[in-house]
Design a protein that fits this description.
The chain contains 4 helices and 5 strands; from the N terminus they run βαβαβαβαβ. β2, α2 (about 40-55) and β3 (about 65-75) form a beta-alpha-beta unit. α1 runs parallel beside α2 (about 40-55) and α3 packs parallel to α4 (about 105-120). The longest helix has 17 residues, at about 10-25. The chain is an alpha/beta fold.
């Protein structure tokens, strides 16, 4: 099983990552963490660091049965939902685990709609973590 977890830096997205880390451990699944953004800055580096901290806390990267990959996808768009669906199709993910909203008011609207976009496409099972 291949699990995709988009993170945006919000607490909600990191709760989704914690859930996915447990899921990957329980099912010996591959876990891919992605942050989709149109620029690389200090905030982006902090998101990657925090994602790795979550994986370390769950001993995911030390589990030989779980294959992990924390990466950044730089995409010049605010169409996060569509970008997630493209990754699902291109990379053959079996499951997506997402937070239900983002960090702030604008981000909440964007990631909230991204979550809805991914769920409405009905391409793979989606777990939404509050």
């Amino acid at each position: 099983m291949k699990i995709l977890v988009p993170v945006d830096g919000s607490d909600c997205s990191f709760r989704a990552l914690e859930f996915a880390a447990e899921m990957a451990t329980n099912y010996d699944a591959a876990l891919h963490v992605v942050h989709i953004t149109d620029s690389r800055d200090e905030a982006t580096e902090e998101i990657v660091r925090r994602a790795r901290d979550v994986l370390d806390a769950h001993d995911v990267e030390d589990d030989p049965a779980v294959r992990t990959d924390v990466s950044l996808d730089f995409r010049p768009s605010n169409r996060i939902g569509e970008d997630v669906l493209t990754l699902v199709a291109d990379e053959g993910y079996d499951h997506v685990v997402m937070g239900h909203h983002g960090a702030g008011t604008v981000e909440r609207a964007i990631l909230g709609s991204a979550t809805e976009t991914v769920m409405d496409a009905e391409r793979v099972p989606v777990t939404v973590v509050p």
